[in-house]
Amino acid sequence: MKRKVCESLFAVTLALTVAVTNIPVTAFATEINQSARQEQMTESVQTENQGQQSDSLQENHGAQNETNSENGQNSTDNPAGAEQNSGEGDNPAGTDLKKDNQFEGNNFQKVDNQENSGVAEEISRQQNTDDNQQNAQVSEQAAMLSSDETQWNWHKGEITQNELKKLLGDSWPYAGTYRWSKDRENWNKTIAYGNPVYTFDTGTYYFQKETFTWTGGIQWNDIGTKEIHAYYNMGINIYGSSEGVVYNSENLAVPLNSTFQVYDNKYKFTVKNIENYEIKVTATGGSQGERKLTPDANGMYEVIFDDDVTVKVEYIATNYVNVKIGQTENAEVYINDTLIENEDTRVNLNENFQIKIIPQKGYAIEGVTVDQASVSDLSFEKYAASFSWYSGETNQATITISPKVVKEVLALKENVIVSYHKGMNVERLKNNIFNTVVNKENTIPNNISIDDVEIQYQSGLGWQELDYKPIVGVFAHEFGNNDTEKIRISYKGNSQYAPLEAETTVSISDERIETQVVIQEGITIQYNTEDVMKQELLQYITVQDKDGNTLPVDKSELTLSYNRIVGQQELTVSYAGDDDYKDAVATATITITKGDATVSVNSQKITYGESFEAPIFTASPEEAKAIGLIVGITASGEKYASIDLSEVTVNDIAGTDIPIYGKKSVQEVMRSLGMTSIKVGQLPELFEKIQGIIGSESDIAGVINGIEKVINILEKIVPGINDVTIHIGELPTEAGVYTAAGVTVNSNYNTAIGVGTLVIAQKKTNAKLSFNQNIENKHNRLTAAEAESFDFGGHIEVDGNAVGDTPGIRTNFVGKTATGEIVSGTEAFKEEGEYIETISIIGGNYLAIPIVRTYTIGEAKNTIQFEKKIVYASYDGNEHGMTAYAYNEDGDKLGEAALEYQNILQTSTNVSPVENSSAPIDAGMYRVVAIYDNAESEVGTLVITKAVAQGTVTVGNAETTYGQKLNLNSVIIQTKNIAQRDIAAIQDTIACAGSDEAIGSHAITVTVPESVSRNYLRTIKVNKGTHTIISKEVTITADSCKAQYGNTFPEFTYQISGVSDKENLGDISVVKREDGNHVGTYTLDVQVANQNSNYKYNLESGTLTIKKRAITVAIDKKLKVKGQKDPALTYTVEGDGLVEGDSLGIYLSRKSGEKVGLYDIYMDTSNLNKDYELASEPSGKDKFEIVENKAGLTNQKNDSGKSKTNGTQVKSVKKQPGTVWDRIKTGDNNKPVGYFIAVLISLAAIIMIISARFQRKK
């Protein structure tokens, strides 16, 4: 009832709204949305470029008007000052299409209220009395018109007068007069003033221009014809289904929600039918206004144009779900991108529809429920909440969507104190302000955090960041300079919540905790690096609050001030405080003892010319400062000593700052003291003078003692080193062995000594001996004259560059003169003969291998040379040869020598040695003779060894089916380490052993010919293949069959597939798998005895279906005398009859009652034997009769042998309509239950009779 009342109220409200707003009922729900779309579409129509329309959407496929691209140049085309548009629209004249004239067909009437009537402009015509000039001008205009595009396309057929004149060849100030006609009888003519708009129908027009004759008369001259096409913009929008489609008259789909041009006064289209949707088509625009379109018999819609038209196609679902929107005062709800202005809207069944909720400014969506269940997968964009929901399968069901819309609030506390101190970390300050000022309980969103906001203060020069530092002299202040500060907190917002900001004023106060620094008494530490000493001191220092509680401060931030030198020193500890604690300072006296130090020597071995890796001496700690003294003996046997004092200052030695000399290096002090040269034994004296410079500030006696120890050690290693002058600031560079001793010199450390070794080896890498001059011919031959000026001897080269004077180079000569005399010496021999020159080096910085060369003095001879005198090759099936060249007397190559090959060591007894000019292939030893004209022959040797690698031939496997022959050519042979030339010979020997007459496997092999094996050192291994014959598949399927219960089974048969010869398959039979002959389905299995082993049997079973036996049952009529016991109820079986030994399981009962008359007998077949079925339901109507007790009448008996009984009859109550008889099964007459029930019924009847009679007597 309530729903009907609500529906009635809604209907009244809707009717009133429609009456007031004039909105059609069918469009009411989406009117505002569609109005916006109409405005958008209209705007797009006015700015649509003609050339961008699809040709498939135009009824007329003529060329587009190319003059539209010129419409941007119309700013001077309107002399009357008519309103101009952008020049990019559909109006080719480029003016605002407000009609100055109204047309009906081709006739027009002038309208008085033209927009340009307020600006009158007189255009004087210049009369040309020269007819020839007039004719030339007209001809020029006619040529211009005829050469223009073939047709003009105008929106609605409209064009302004000025634009028309311009198209006809006129120019500013458009003073010409023109007329036009379709039939050359009815003419329209331009007017003298103004810029009216003309309307043209589609068709071909004749154009003429007015000219004056020399006599003053008027003459109209043809300037050409033009085909004009008027077009209209048509938009088609589809709503209600994404599957909706509109087809044009050519059955082409129109792009969804498109706008296009129609070059006709009508447009036809069809709309795709979608199941479970009704279609409503409406058109708006033109003189007809909004109207409903109805399709013809072929489903075709037609639109008639007199203006632009928009067609709206609505798919209205017939199966839908109703969506109800909850309270949304401060938000808009969109379903499938449509604004929902009513509480209810429809969506399709079985679809996911999209919901978008946009809050009003200042509000946010905190959540959405659908049917009181929260939506968990909300997504937000620009504060709008979106989600998808499944409509379900229930037609006309209701889904209730309730958004939770909340007002955003940034709540700030007033008159609160914010802790702040100078130098506070700006992030900590922001946190202090945020945590103190923001009232999260009353803020929405309530999960706002410090990362979500920006905090600024009023500096006096606008809002600034908290760490803002104003320029000096600017009227502004830093944060915290005032007792109170005005704060602005800006919430940045996110995709769900819009930005917010709020202001408040806070008080500034330093609320940090008071602190004190506590230093233990009697601290003694060992001198070390500054960091190590600080860490040790920090163990004795704590920062506490005023109550003595240790505070969790970072001790590394404490500042320690003291004189870091051995002795008692005053220590000052300062704590700068932080954003939680205030600063504090304390002092104490500490004792510093000398520290331990070590010095290590980086022992190295380098080659002459290389540099030692720095540092050589390393002190640990580094500030202990080590100096190093290097002594040794060079490869030339000279003593050497050096020390580098450039990196050690007087302060380093003193361990503290010394005035004047403190920052100078020891080397600078030496120059100041005039000690430019010093021997090893004088080093202690140098440091004693440095002690004098340092004075009492520091005692370096330990350093001097350490230096003396080092000198004593080195004197034992290199005796006499004390008297060697030291190379100051240098390292050894000459080859030799050196001892490096380091000693620490910082007086704050106990002196440490370290010793190592430095070795500079003679350079031999890239160092070589070279001859001073090379002999420039192959045979090192010189003439006696050349020998006289030749530079014999040698020198050292490093990386190809000659080294200057190098001591130790020796040159020796030995040889035989042309007369046979043996000679030797250190000077070169220059008389005819053959000699050997040897260059060597002994000692110095270089180590090089001696070099030797032979040279001949005398005339040159021609020779033949092999590239290689002996060539070795391994058999690979390819030719192997040698190469020899002949050279002239000057050593120039003359050409390649001819070669002859003779096999002098055959690999086979079947091959005799022969000479051959071709390079050999087979293994063997060949004598090779090189011959060239005018040259002595040369003999070389070619050895082709047998192939060493184990050759392998692997025969592939093959498989065939029983009865199929093997093609040996298809067997693949794989080889390894076999020459390509030998594979074909092996392939020719393939053979297969065995028979194809039965399944099984046998070998496939090959034989290696002797012509092949003789070239291989090892016997070629043959891996035989296998030919496998597999069994052939045969399928035997048992045929399925049917039989009736109780009848003889049909003969079982089968089908064979896969073979043609059926005689060799064995003995085939079909047997029933399960025992039994009752109704059901039984499996028939195929059995094969004496199976042929050459076949693979697939035995597929069939089925035997035993159907129920159909019988007919007739209920026997029964008669009893009133008052007597009921006779047994029986029935007779007819039809196919019962199978011997079966029982049907049928039970009979009759309608209750003992009065004389006819009664129905009922049959219960609920326990009917499952092997049987009744052909028809037997009738028991009036088959039981009770008659009066007359003499001689007795109950009817069973007709034994023909009828069946179910035993003792049970009396039942009267049957009520719609009930089922309850009967007791008494199939066995001997059961005591039956007798007991019968006795009870009889006793009840007797008691009732006696009681009735007794009442009558009373």
Automatic annotation (TrEMBL):
Biased composition annotated in UniProt, kind: Low complexity: 126-137
InterPro entries, per the entry: MBG_2 (IPR041286)
Transmembrane residue ranges: 1233-1254
MBG domain residues: 1034-1105, 1111-1175
The keyword Lyase is annotated on this UniProt entry: no
Keywords, sorted A to Z: Membrane, Signal, Transmembrane, Transmembrane helix
Region (Disordered): 38-148, 1194-1216
The keyword Transmembrane appears for this protein: yes
Biased composition regions of type Polar residues, renumbered to the chain: 38-88, 103-117, 1194-1211
Signal peptide boundaries: 1-29
Protein name (database record): MBG domain-containing protein
Taxonomic source organism: Dorea formicigenerans
Lineage: Bacteria, Bacillati, Bacillota, Clostridia, Lachnospirales
